[in-house]
Each structure stands twice: as C-alpha cells, then as structure tokens.
Structure to design on (271 residues):
C-alpha cells in the first residue's frame, strides 16, 4: 500500500496515551479473497467493516482492530493468506537495522501514514512475518480484552530460544521461561511488566508446520465459536482439547486459508 491509497485509523483517540514498546497493537489480514474473509469474521466475531476497496478496517464495538487487504496469491509461491501482527516500537528505523543485523529481511520498508505514524513489515530469520509501528498518537493502554478483541499471540518457531533472542534485539523484550508449558523450550516475551506473546518450539512430529505468528481472539464460548466457524465455511485444524488451555482454546482456518486462534478467558488482566 502507498500512503495515499490507505486510510489507517489512529491506534488511540485518547490524548496523552503512553507508548508501550513490545505490545502488539494492530493486525492485518492478507488474503486473495477479502470479500469472503469480511463475511466470515463479521459473522463469527461480530466485527463491523468500514471502508471499501482493497483495504478495509474491521472494528469491534467501534474499536478499530485490524485491516483486511486484498492481494492476489503469487503463482510462483507457496504463500497463503495470513494474519500479520504489528509490534509497537520506539523507532522504526532502529527496528529495521536490528532485523537486518539479526538475519531477518524487509518485506515492506518503513513508511509514514496520516493519522497512524510510521510502520514497516519484516520477516524474522525463520521467515515468520511481522510488522512494527510507531504510532503518532501513542498506544492504547493495557486492558482486559472484550469478546471479539485480540487476546493473545504466539510465535511458532523451530528454535524458540533463538527466536526469542531475535525479538529481544528488535523490540527490547525480556525473554522468560514459559512456566505454564510442560516443555523446556517455550518462552514468553515480556515488556512493561506484561506478557506480550509466547514463543513455542514446533514439535518435531509437526515438521511441515512453517514458522509463523498466530493471533488469538477472545470469544465467549470456544465450542460454540468452533461450530459457527464450521457453518461459515471455516476449518478447525486444532479442535478444543484438555491439553489446550483445558478446552478453552482452538485454532481455526478461515475460508480463505488464514489460521487464527480463539480463546475463552475468565481471569483478570495480569502482569
């Protein structure tokens, strides 16, 4: 997108909002069938769609959450529709230098957008795609997400320890052991005292799974959301199970093929 082709909303409308480096503050869905994706997410999560053309904004209860971008699927690539999460950073140019120094690459060079600020899209050294943004108005403060909001995000990696080191250099995270996991090679990325993301090593038996970021949306009832997703043409590659957050989480695939997680949550927002 060029700056004159996209209208991106501000990440916050409250004056004096803080900057929260390391927080995931936005997401974009890249798909070759945006119309189908819009229908699916509006029905599943109750998102409202704003705008027209190749890039539209999805909102939950009037809060802009993400963009949906129509792009043709490259004929010579195995690329599939995907969600891209954006990390708040204090300086986009410095983040780009850290990405390149750490073995990553630039997908979309830093660019300024009216009302939004500056953002860019990179790939880490395993090929997982992510964005960074420095909002012109600051970031929305941390709060317990409502149903339909982004709740969590996980990075699937072939080497979680190595990946944690990469994102520490790019976004300044503190990388700590994931004490909720039974595996020793899972980690949590922490900033400002909050857990921002998990980094999980892909089990060897799932060698075909590519390194990637997987965002989760909060839902009221996972079982009901799974059934609804199926009725809307989605698939469920990972069904709810006792091993996955005691049956309160699942991984879906929208009708265009983009994976997305769903999660029930009954606790409070915790540091």
């Amino acid at each position: 997108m060029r700056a004159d082709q996209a209208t991106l909303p501000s990440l916050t409308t409250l004056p004096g909002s803080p900057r929260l480096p390391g927080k995931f503050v936005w997401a974009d869905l890249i798909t070759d069938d945006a119309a189908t994706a819009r229908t699916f997410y509006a029905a599943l999560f109750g998102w409202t769609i704003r705008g027209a053309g190749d890039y539209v904004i999805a909102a939950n209860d009037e809060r802009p959450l993400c963009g949906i971008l129509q792009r043709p699927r490259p004929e010579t690539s195995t690329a599939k529709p995907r969600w891209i999460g954006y990390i708040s950073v204090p300086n986009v140019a410095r983040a780009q230098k850290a990405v390149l120094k750490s073995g990553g690459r630039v997908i979309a060079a830093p660019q300024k957008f009216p009302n939004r600020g500056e953002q860019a899209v990179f790939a880490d050294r395993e090929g997982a795609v992510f964005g960074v943004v420095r909002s012109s108005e600051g970031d929305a403060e941390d709060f317990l997400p409502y149903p339909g909001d982004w709740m969590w995000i996980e990075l699937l990696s072939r080497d979680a320890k190595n990946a944690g080191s990469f994102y520490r250099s790019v976004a300044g995270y503190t990388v700590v052991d994931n004490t909720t996991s039974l595996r020793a090679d899972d980690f949590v990325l922490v900033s400002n005292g909050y857990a921002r993301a998990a980094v999980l090593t892909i089990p060897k038996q799932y060698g075909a799974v590519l390194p990637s970021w997987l965002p989760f949306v909060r839902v009221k009832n996972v079982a009901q959301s799974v059934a609804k997703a199926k009725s809307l043409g989605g698939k469920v590659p990972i069904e709810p199970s006792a091993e996955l957050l005691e049956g309160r989480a699942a991984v879906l695939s929208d009708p265009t093929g983009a994976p997305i997680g769903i999660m029930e949550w009954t606790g409070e927002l915790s540091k």
About this structure: DSSP finds four helices and 16 strands in the chain. Residues 150-263 form a domain with the 2,3-Dihydroxybiphenyl 1,2-Dioxygenase; domain 1 fold (CATH 3.10.180.10).
